[in-house]
Amino acid sequence: MELYAIIFSLLLCFMTYESSNAAGCAEVPQLSNADVSPGLLKSNYSSGDKLEYNCKHGYFPLRKFVYICDGKKWIKLNKTECTIKRCELPTDIPNGQYSIVNGNSFVFGTTIKYTCNKGFQMQSRFVDRTCRLDGWDNRLPACEEVTCVPDNIENNIKVEGLPDYGDLIRFGHRLKFSCDDEKLLILRGAKEIMCQSNGKWSSPFPNCEEVTCPKNATEDNIIVQRIPDQEGSIKYGHMLKFSCLDEGLILKGKRTITCQANGEWSDPYPKCEEVTCQEEELNNTQILVGHPGITPPYKSGQILVFRCTDVNMKMSGQRLIECQSNGKWDNPYPQCEGNVQCRRPPSMSHENADTKEMTRNKYNSGEKVEYVCFNKYVMEGDSFLTCVQGKWRGHFTCLKPCTVTVDEMDKRNIQLKRGGRGNLFAPHGDYFTFVCQWFHYQKGNISFRQMCRNGEMPLPECE
Ligand SMILES: *[C@@H]1O[C@H](CO)[C@@H](O)[C@H](O)[C@H]1NC(C)=O
Ligand SMILES: *[C@@H]1O[C@H](CO)[C@@H](O)[C@H](O)[C@H]1NC(C)=O
Ligand SMILES: *[C@@H]1O[C@H](CO)[C@@H](O)[C@H](O)[C@H]1NC(C)=O
Ligand SMILES: *[C@@H]1O[C@H](CO)[C@@H](O)[C@H](O)[C@H]1NC(C)=O
Ligand SMILES: *[C@@H]1O[C@H](CO)[C@@H](O)[C@H](O)[C@H]1NC(C)=O
Predict the structure, then answer these.
(1) What is the Å distance from ligand 4's center to 297 Cα?
(2) Mutate to test the pocket of ligand 3, among 212, 216, 218 (most ligand atoms within 8 A of CB)
(3) Does the beta carbon of 388 sit less than 6 angstroms from any atom of ligand 4?
(4) Sorting pLDDT into bands at 50, 70 and 90, what band is 421?
(5) I need a surface site. Which of 107, 222, 255, 352 has the fewest CB within 10 A?
(6) What residue spans define the domains of the chain?
(7) Where residue 23 falls among pLDDT bands split at 50, 70, 90?
(8) For residue 34, which of 17, 53, 21 has the smallest C-alpha distance?
(9) pTM recorded for the entire structure
(10) What is the pLDDT averaged over residues 33-39?
(11) Could you tell me if the CB of 354 is within 6 A of ligand 4?
């Protein structure tokens, strides 16, 4: 059963193929770069049927291509193909060149663009040319030399580099400007300009204006006087004179400033600032009135009242001083001195010292008290304290003695060279010589001769 089915379907297949072949020409052939004319298209072609093709836009020839059906297949009647339209090599232009905008050969649809060399500019409106069926479109453009046109030149300006009448100003040409009267006129704009490759000047033409200096705003506390005294703009050589409105203000900066040839002031505008008096060092005094009501910086008109730090002192100078409008005190700060007694001198036991004699409750300025160091301590410095205006002044130290026990010496296997066995207790500055104990030898490099220095003495060692 199955075998029959297979044979039957194979047979059917073969017959179908044969019948389609016999029916006429198969599907419409493709012709490159050409389109088939729709008028002759059918669903079913037989012997003698024709097809016509036209080359695509931009391709040649313009005549029709013909295919004919011979009953089985399509026969092409023409030998040639559609080929794209080629344009001739583009023409070069003087002082310029072309470049391809799109495409990579000079065929239908390609666009080229012309540009001019530096110093030349395009004369023509259209700079593109495109390859069309009838060749390059547009006209061949042309480049002309760039020239700049000078502006009107005022009488008060001098120009260097202007060409003779009728001569063209070409790309790269420079003009230099200056003012007729350098003192009264100032050049506003570029000193030098150049004719650029686009036919425009690098900067606009400058002009010469009268020198004027700017009028700056001033604070209310300053008076400005014009020299010469006139209204209007401030010209070269004119001056301004300043003064402060109030006493208690001081002028910081130049009293007069001058308008210079460059249109700038010789100096910055000055300012009026409040006067202040310098704070000075106190010498046994206190400011009684002032602090905290009046604090530095002290202004003009402010008053300080002083008193001595100790009632037993005498003041020299003025008790009351005033800051003047010139920033100075009317009198210097007063000073105090006098016999201020000292209390009982301090115990110096923390320094290992005590007074030599019994002390009193009060001492006068200039009186001294002598101190002595404790046993075996050595005095360094002046052993006196002096009473100075109620304060004890002076400084000394008691240098400490050294102690070395027998145990410490045994641990290091050393003993004193002289003096036998026993603890050692010696003041600062004493020398000692050690030796190794019997059958021991020096270890390390610490010297055997040592001095006691403020309680410290390195010990040598033996082993
Ligand atoms: C093709 O043409 C033949 C004869 O002209 C016709 O018998 C047949 O039906 C056509 N086939 C189609 C699919 O139109
Ligand atoms: C193709 O051949 C036909 C018939 O000979 C002719 O009419 C036509 O002009 C030819 N076309 C071309 C492009 O040569
Ligand atoms: C004028 O004022 C400007 C801006 O405040 C300042 O930069 C300039 O220095 C002033 N000129 C003088 C001469 O003080
Ligand atoms: C303090 O006043 C005394 C006495 O006038 C003077 O000898 C001393 O130099 C003054 N000290 C200072 C720091 O001004
Ligand atoms: C002693 O020895 C120490 C190290 O053991 C060394 O640093 C030092 O320089 C030596 N001193 C002398 C004087 O030789």
Answers:
(1) 23
(2) 216
(3) no
(4) confident
(5) 255
(6) 2-84, 96-145, 147-210, 214-274, 276-337, 342-399, 402-462
(7) low
(8) 53
(9) 0.40
(10) 93
(11) no
